[in-house]
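Progress note, sequence design subtask.
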């Protein structure tokens, strides 16, 4: 009984810590979701061990956790045009389930080290991304504007005026609007500056990257 209480406690703590980081950054799978996933994976793993004691296949239930959690993670992946978000959250859900399974098998140190590594990775990654914003990098700007080639040329001129190199430009027309994608090299500061200028044009309806 004491062993199962330790597993429940550790699953809630590790899942909760990772969930708090996700919820703090306003991600789809937050505190409660990660707690439940970690606790559920732990319970399924314990049940699979008990099944083995009675002649069943001990890996039967645990194996389904790996694939089953994928459906939960897939629900957090969103696509908006050419932009995909939620992949990190989906991967996090999958790893939280693995941590729960490790707790279920009694691998407490492995589960704790894995959870700590993920937390450090997430926090350090955000610091790295902030640093990368100071460097020029390739990125794509997506714009919706009025269907005139003069407007497209005006947009290109405004970007190049900021000493930003345009590497590729594509224009498609849908519902009497131009959808423009521009691949360029710029810093985070330059993107903010050009965004303000482009959105100030009455011909530009929306802009994102």
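Output:
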């Amino acid at each position: 009984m004491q062993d199962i209480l330790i597993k429940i406690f550790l699953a809630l703590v590790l899942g909760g810590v990772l969930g708090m980081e996700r919820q703090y950054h306003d991600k789809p799978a937050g505190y409660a979701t990660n707690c439940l996933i970690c606790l559920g994976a732990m319970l399924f793993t314990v049940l699979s061990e008990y099944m083995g004691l009675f002649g069943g296949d001990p890996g039967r239930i645990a194996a389904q956790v790996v694939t089953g959690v994928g459906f939960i993670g897939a629900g957090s992946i969103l696509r908006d045009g050419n932009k995909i978000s939620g992949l990190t959250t989906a991967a996090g859900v999958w790893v939280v389930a693995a941590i729960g399974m490790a707790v279920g098998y009694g691998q407490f140190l492995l589960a704790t080290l894995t959870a700590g590594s993920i937390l450090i990775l997430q926090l350090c990654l955000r610091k790295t991304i902030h640093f990368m914003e100071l460097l020029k990098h390739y990125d794509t700007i997506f714009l919706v504007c009025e269907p005139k080639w003069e407007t497209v040329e005006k947009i290109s001129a405004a970007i190049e005026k900021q000493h930003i190199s345009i590497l590729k430009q594509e224009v498609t027309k849908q519902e009497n609007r131009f959808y423009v994608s521009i691949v360029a090299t710029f810093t985070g500061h330059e993107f903010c500056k050009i965004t303000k200028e482009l959105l100030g044009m009455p011909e530009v309806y929306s802009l994102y990257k």
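The two ends are 53 Å apart (CA to CA). Work on this subtask will continue into the next period as scheduled.
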